[in-house]
Write a structure and sequence with these properties.
Strand order of the largest sheet: 12-13-14-11-10-16-17
CATH topology of the largest domain: Aldehyde Dehydrogenase, Chain A, domain 1
Number of strands: 20
Largest sheet: 7 strands, mixed
Mean pLDDT: 96
Number of helices: 16
Strand content: 15-25%
Structural class: alpha/beta
Radius of gyration: 23 Å
Helix content: 40-55%
CATH class of the largest domain: Alpha Beta
CATH superfamily of the largest domain: Aldehyde Dehydrogenase, Chain A, domain 1
Low-confidence stretches: none
């Protein structure tokens, strides 16, 4: 490891104890180290330090903040290999995917370094001759964030970068399964020049205790959360007492649709990329596949063959495309959904063999019905239930039959159908003839119970800004 990343890990690791969180490799069970935790009082103290530091940070110019953020971006990219290896060891995803996430996470820092210089206000035509009207944008204050384990670097940078660029201070709680990546990224931020009290990470044995501290604190003016809809509901309600700005990126149940006029090879490639990336542990991955009757057999032959070529194993091993799931709770849920679907009449067309450790074999289910739990719930694993459909109207009804509305995908070459379906799907993001849609230049977020607010793009920094209206009176003509 390069010294700068090694420094980060040495700084945050501690001896195993009751006041530390043990981090393990999901592929091997090896203990990687222990992370110290803070008490509730220490977390409250960190939030107060963040409030004081934010007052000075917002006095820096957007250009000064951009210079620091660009240095942070450069450090992440210079340490991409080491950061990717850390991520693979604690999270499990294949090394190529992990290194790709480092670049993806860094892209938000680069983007918002520039976007922070474009937080323009407006001049407004006055309604009387002696007045001049305008708006300016100012940072909301202390921004707190709770991030998940499935993208341990990108979910930190996607929230921290716009906050810092806007002039906010930032306090984050990484997932207890994957804190090493977050602490390494934080150390690189400090090396780049971000003051330590402006960017802090906190850990506690109880995630609920951190959430309670963030929600109740008068110091925190903005909370951003990525995680389950169940927890998002709780946090949103808890933030009501202090009327915080809140953004929620919650659960998904993405339909992946293959129409009868689709390019089948492209659709198969898109389905494999969308469904099995990170072992199916992404909020925007294809959760249920709908395939038109007319091309069902052709598609399934190609799809099952492609699934059979996937290689499962330790993400550090050459050629592996599917790593382990994150923990035993996740594996139990995935296998439970598969077993229940089979008991309801679904058939295993590929995979399905019980694996040792935390591995789940890439699996395809056929004879799946819309009412089955595996269609209605987010699987978060490498299992693809496939459903037949025969008309556009039937498809749209089934695709929208969920409380979630994060991402959807479909393949078609009919421009009339493309517009109709894209406009009819009740989702915040739609991939058309494309299975991977995330990028820093486009807004990421959902509708319905998949949450609200947007990350990335020009909309992402607005989440951390307040609009202030200024009215100048007494202007002499």
């Amino acid at each position: 490891m390069k010294s700068i990343v090694n420094q980060a890990l040495l700084a945050c690791l501690c001896k195993p104890s009751d006041s530390a969180i043990e981090v393990t490799n999901p592929a091997t069970g090896e203990v990687l180290g222990s992370i110290p935790v803070q008490s509730r009082q220490e977390i409250d103290d960190a939030l107060e330090r963040s409030r004081q530091a934010q007052k000075e940070w917002q006095k820096t110019t957007a250009k000064e903040r951009a210079v620091i953020l660009k240095r942070w971006y450069d450090l992440l990219m210079a340490n991409q290999d080491d950061l990717g290896r850390i991520m693979t060891m604690e999270q499990g995803k294949p090394l190529a995917e992990a290194k790709g996430e480092v670049a993806y996470g860094a892209s938000f820092i680069e983007w918002f370094a520039e976007e922070g210089k474009r937080t323009y206000g407006d001049t407004i035509p006055g309604h009387t001759g002696d007045r001049r009207l305008m708006t300016i944008k100012q940072p909301v204050g202390v921004a707190a964030a709770i991030t998940p384990w499935n993208f341990p670097i990108a979910m930190i940078t996607r929230k921290a970068a716009p906050a810092l660029a806007a002039g906010c201070s930032f306090v984050g709680k990484p997932a207890h399964q994957t804190p090493l990546s977050a602490y390494a990224v934080a150390e690189l931020a400090y090396q780049a020049g971000v003051p330590r009290d402006v960017f802090q990470l906190v850990m506690h044995k109880s995630p609920q205790e951190v959430g309670d501290a963030f929600c109740k604190s008068e110091a925190v003016r903005k909370l951003s959360f990525t995680g389950s809809t169940r927890v998002g509901r709780i946090l949103t309600a808890q933030c009501a007492d202090t009327v915080k700005r809140v953004s929620m990126e919650l659960g998904g149940n993405a339909p992946f649709v293959v129409f009868d006029d689709a390019d089948l090879d492209a659709a198969v490639a898109g389905a494999i990329a969308s469904k099995f990336r990170n072992a199916g542990q992404t909020c925007v991955c294809a959760n249920r596949l709908y395939v038109h009757d007319a091309i069902y057999d052709q598609f399934m032959d190609k799809f099952i063959a492609a699934v059979g070529r996937l290689r499962m194993g330790n993400g550090l091993d050459e050629g592996v495309n599917v790593g382990p799931v994150i923990d035993q709770v996740a594996k139990h849920k995935i296998l439970g959904l598969v077993d229940h679907a089979v008991s309801q009449g679904a058939k295993i067309a590929a995979g399905g063999t019980l694996q040792d450790g935390l591995f789940v074999e890439p699996t395809v289910l056929t004879d799946v019905e819309q009412s089955m739990d595996i269609v209605q719930e987010e699987i978060f694993g490498p299992v693809a239930p496939v459903i037949r459909f025969s008309s556009d109207e039937e498809l749209i009804t089934k695709a929208n039959d969920t409380i979630y509305g994060l991402a959807a995908y479909f393949y078609s070459r009919d421009i009339n159908r493309i517009w109709k379906v894209a406009e009819s799907l009740e989702y915040g993001m739609v991939g058309i003839n494309e299975g991977i849609i995330s990028t820093e230049v486009a807004p990421f977020g959902g509708v319905k119970q998949s949450g609200f607010g947007r990350e990335g793009a020009k909309e992402g920094i607005d989440e951390y800004l307040e609009v202030k209206y200024l009215c100048f009176g007494g202007i002499q003509g």
